[in-house]
Design a protein that fits this description.
The complex is a heterodimer of chains A (about 500) and B (about 60). Chain A is globular, with a radius of gyration of 22 Å. Chain A contains 20 helices and 2 strands. Chain A is mostly helical and about 500 residues long. The termini of chain A are far apart. Chain B has about 60 residues and is an all-alpha fold. Chain B has one domain. Chain B has 3 helices and no strands. The interface between A and B is large, with 43 and 36 residues.
């Protein structure tokens, strides 16, 4: 066993112990859903910063963004404006959501929809969308781990990779079951510390060895031209709209995901969320630097097959000493475990609070236990998904979920400000948006960009989620006055203006 | 009170700066080896954080909305 493998195993063992020990952190009654799923809503600025950072910047960060930049060039850099504009949005909109959730005791975003519109079907639709979108996202974390296990496994990769993956997920499911959100919150400290050390080391060491950034960019530009389809260092005019739509659409949907909501609601106060809107961009800088490591891999002549997920692990193996490769690989695997746990918790909450409860007599005492079992089931389903379904681009995997997630925007984020829409119109708009997103994704063979035919001929390449939400809005706006005119029942709004203050 | 609320308009700046790629989809000027496209967007990560920080500090009394 090499020193790298030993360090890797030690680090993974450490976080496993931490995950189980987290049950004793900040003592609370873990049979209570607020305590198990939201850490008792008591996390301060620092814990929230690590938790949100560990949650939002996932194995996706380590593997898929640089892989996309490695494969397609500048277009992959959309992750940077995406994670820039997400925070002003959080500062205003999600802070407002935190307040109403605190005042009314919501655990999920669908709880808010139920209260705001008094419409059970809209609530269920929003909840199922969250679960549906989180599943590929959890699977994406598994893809991230798989890449690393395959690298460590070497010649016996296939068998080793699958055993390691099953083992890692069994452990993850077990400590999430016992400790709830406290487990990822505690592990997030280790994850983020390793992440910062790895990226900073990479940025200091690798460009210097490759002859500086100017040389890296010019060499990368040459290799990108040879790709099929060719990539470029700066996006071309026909990509402008797609680039902006990807950034905007992704930013608007990021905080609708169940795992983002779960982490947000675990904050102690609105101030904690607002402070973090100014502090979390530190992770975005890290993400940008990571993305640029994709060019370093090109400049270093690292040749990996599409979907290029191996570009960064190979880059690390080339330039880091063996023991540090162990650290870097552990960072990626732990970077997948933290968000996967939160995603499983968030989806379980949605399913229990907003689907099961709607169709069965309300039994709050059993609710936490149901959520815990579901959390296990979701982990198992995500594992089966990854072992059985082959997907070319890890990032597209997540963006397909993004196409769906954005469809709840009108009934959630917007509903924080207005109740103008008729709930049934929102439901119809949501259904059309979901169908449109799915249809477009299938039409382009599971990619994120769709060439929209223009009336005057030609096409406008744009982000599927964005096009679908336009359809969604159009239907909701058109049907609202019709449904009002037909006197379709509008549910009762249980929230009062004071709840938002 | 009205004036404090005006600070919130600043939050639109990061959107305007990053969602119009014609503003920055170019190579020159290159700084420290980085094409403009890259350092401009990196710079906006920092600027957006500063904008959010400023709004938080200066619009503090509007906390309740």
């Amino acid at each position: 066993m090499s020193s790298g493998t030993i360090i890797f195993v030690l680090l993974i063992a450490t976080v496993t112990v931490m995950g189980f020990a987290a049950a004793r952190w900040r003592p609370g009654n873990l049979a209570n859903l607020d305590e198990w799923a939201l850490g008792g809503r008591g996390f301060g600025t620092l814990v929230s910063w690590f938790l949100l950072g560990g949650d939002l910047y996932t194995a996706y960060t380590f593997i898929a963004v640089p892989a996309l930049v490695y494969g397609a060039g500048a277009l992959g850099f959309f992750a940077v404006p995406y994670t820039t504009i997400a925070y002003p949005f959080v500062f205003v909109v999600m802070a407002r959501f935190w307040v109403v959730a605190k005042n009314r005791g919501y655990v999920t975003v669908a709880d808010f929809v139920r209260d705001r519109f008094g419409d059970r079907w809209l609530e269920v639709a929003v909840a199922l969308t969250g679960v549906l979108a989180a599943m590929p996202y959890i699977a994406l974390q598994l893809v991230g781990m798989q890449v690393i296990f395959a690298e460590i496994g070497g010649a016996q990769a296939v068998v080793f990779e699958q055993i390691a993956l099953i083992l890692a997920f069994a452990i993850l499911a077990a400590y999430t079951y016992t400790s709830g959100l406290r487990a990822p919150a505690m592990i997030a400290f280790v994850k983020d510390a390793l992440l910062y050390v790895t990226i900073i080391a990479a940025i200091v060491i690798i460009p210097a060895k490759l002859g500086g950034w100017a040389h890296i960019f010019s060499t990368a530009a040459l290799s990108l031209k040879a790709h099929k389809p060719p990539g470029s260092l700066v996006i071309a005019p026909h990509q402008y709209f797609a680039y902006a739509a990807l950034a905007f659409g992704s930013a608007m949907s990021l905080f609708l995901y169940p795992h983002s909501i779960t982490s947000l609601l675990s904050a102690k106060s609105k101030r904690v969320i607002q402070r973090n809107s100014a502090l979390l961009p530190l992770y975005s800088i890290l993400l940008a630097l990571l993305a640029l490591l994709g060019y370093c891999a090109l400049a270093a002549g690292i040749n990996v097959p599409a979907p290029y997920n191996l570009a960064i692990p190979r880059l690390f193996e080339r330039f880091f000493p063996d023991w540090f490769v162990g650290v870097a690989f552990a960072a990626i695997v732990i970077g997948a475990l933290v968000p996967a746990a939160i995603m499983a918790i968030g989806s379980a909450n949605l399913f229990v609070s907003n689907v099961l409860r709607e169709f069965s007599p309300r039994r709050p005492a059993a609710e936490t236990q149901q959520a815990k079992w579901l959390c296990l089931a979701i982990c198992a389903a995500a594992l089966a998904f990854v072992l059985l379904v082959p997907v070319p681009y890890a990032i597209n995997f997540q963006l397909l979920g993004g196409g769906w997630m954005l469809q709840v925007f009108p009934s959630t984020a917007l509903a924080l400000y207005t109740r103008w829409f008729h709930p049934k119109a929102l439901l119809a708009g949501w259904a059309c948006g979901m169908i449109a997103a799915t249809w477009m994704a299938i039409a382009v063979n599971y990619k994120t960009l769709f060439p929209l035919p223009l009336p005057g001929g030609g096409t406008l390449i744009g982000f599927i989620a964005f096009y679908a939400v336009v359809v969604n809005f159009a239907v909701s706006i058109a049907l609202t006055p019709i449904f009002n005119g037909l006197r379709f029942a509008r549910g009762v709004d249980c929230t009062a203006a004071a709840d938002y203050a | 009170m009205k004036q404090r609320r005006a600070w919130y308009w600043l939050l639109l700046l990061p959107f305007i700066a990053t969602l119009f790629p014609p503003l920055y989809a170019r190579t020159d000027p290159v700084v420290a080896g980085f094409p403009f496209f890259y350092w401009y967007q990196l710079l906006w990560v920092v600027l957006a954080a500063l904008v959010v920080g400023c709004v938080m500090v200066f619009a503090k009394e509007r906390d309740d909305v």
